[in-house]
Amino acid sequence: MEHTPALEKKLIQFSGIKPTGSLTLGSYLGAIKNWTELCEEYESFFCVVDMHSITIRVDPALLRRNAMEQLAYYIACGLDPEACTLFIQSHVPAHAELSWVLGCYTMFGELSRMTQFKEKSAKNADNINGGLFTYPVLMAADILLYDTDVVPVGEDQRQHVELCRDIANRFNGVYGETFKLPRAILPKVGARIMSLTEPDHKMSKSDDRDPGSVLLKDPDDVIMRKFKRAVTDCDSERCVRYDPENKKGVANLMSIYAAVTGKSFSEIEREFDGKGYGVFKPAVGEAVCGVLRPIREEAGRLLADRTYLDSVCAAGAEKAERASRRILSKVYKKVGFLPRPR
Ligand code: TYM
To answer: Rounded distance, CA 311 to CA 17, Å?
Structure first.
């Protein structure tokens, strides 16, 4: 008799990016590249987390444009809307609904300790709003709604994923097994890409004009210029050697090169032995252009087809809505909300 193996249920990955600005090489190497690599093995949900963007003041028209552009870039980076669920957070009300409930199981002290809250409130001293403070609760809701096993993120989001686990664990302790406990997955190289001009600071998408940030939409000549001007170090050695303590700029460029070519640090050291930064920096630029060019061109084609992008949005919202309702109903029941009579 023929043996039919039981259909194995895939583990689930969930992740998201705030559409606060244009996607950077940091967002790609720290997050999206990893998502695409895990897609085959995991059932996948990727969200454009627009509700997270309004903790700081943003222009509404710009937010809408960035959100759609980000969705196009998700697809252009290789996320297939047929194979995974791509959606916009504000299209799925369960995120805000679960966030309220989880907020009641999150401690003031826990939220006060979040590094990102401390940094952002220092930067926006005139607008330290409640949303900025409770932001990690909404992020926990995003993750927990989909029965997520793994959350592929860059280094800066690890603390938020750990808090999400703590919240889930606390809820499970009160009401019995409800949520899976998700864990963060970080890329081996590229988990923290630094600014090309200030290698002490993370490469950030907040300011499009920042010469230290490489944007996925930057044309080749702009990318090359940014890499040629990248800060290396001022030691007399001027050699390509991985030393993140003393040669931060070079270590950052080596990480970028390693992430886009798949080469190890020792291979890179050998490749540029005796060649100096004048050869190394443009080589990193060329390698990055090689990876970003097809993505940029594909995103351009997709953005010209708004009907297609709208259809991806609609289908994604429907799939996400269906998947998230199951967990939300379970939570509502557990905490004691009266079911709505039919
Ligand atoms: P966000 O939008 O700041 O960043 C999106 C993702 O990109 C990674 N990343 C980087 N990785 C390496 N080097 C960099 N310079 C760099 N810059 C950004 C981030 O670590 C992140 O993985 N709170 C999240 C968004 C979010 C989310 C979620 C993520 C909301 N809900 C649920 C995962 C699951 C954020 O602000 O990421």
So the answer is: 20
156-208 tens-digit pLDDT:
999 999 999 999 999 999 999 999 999 999 999 999 999 999 999 999 986 67
> Per-residue pLDDT for 2 more than 50?
no
Per residue in 90-125, pLDDT (tens digit) is 999 999 999 999 999 999 999 999 999 999 999 889
The ligand 1 atom at the shortest distance from the C-alpha of residue 152 is: 22
CATH fold of 220-302 reads Tyrosyl-Transfer RNA Synthetase (1.10.240)
Give the model's pLDDT for residue 236.
66
**CATH architecture designation of domain 11-186+306-335:** 3-Layer(aba) Sandwich (3.40)
For a substitution probing ligand 1, which of 144, 156, 204, 260 has the most ligand atoms within 8 Å of its CB?
A: 156
For residues 302 and 308, the answer to whether their CB atoms sit within 8 Å is yes
> Percent of the chain scored above 70 by pLDDT?
96
* Mean of pLDDT values over 227-247: 87
Q: Categorize the per-residue pLDDT at 234 as very low, low, confident or very high, splitting at 50, 70 and 90.
A: low
Helix (H) or strand (E) holding 47: strand 42-48
**How far does the centroid of ligand 1 lie from the alpha carbon of residue 152, in Å?**
9
Distance CA 194, CA 216 (A): 15
AA letter at 235: D
| Distance, CA of 95 to CA of 137 (rounded, Å) | 10
- pTM listed for this prediction: 0.95
Question: Which positions ≥6 away from 49 have C-beta within 8 Å?
Answer: 16, 17, 18, 19, 89, 139, 142
Query: Cβ distance 213 to 26 under 8 Å?
Result: yes
Who lines ligand 1 at CB under 6 A? 14-18, 26-27, 30-31, 49, 52, 139, 142-143, 151, 153-154, 156-157, 160, 191-193, 202-203
Domain ranges of the chain: 11-186+306-335, 220-302
Closest CA to 191 of 78, 73, 48, 31: 31
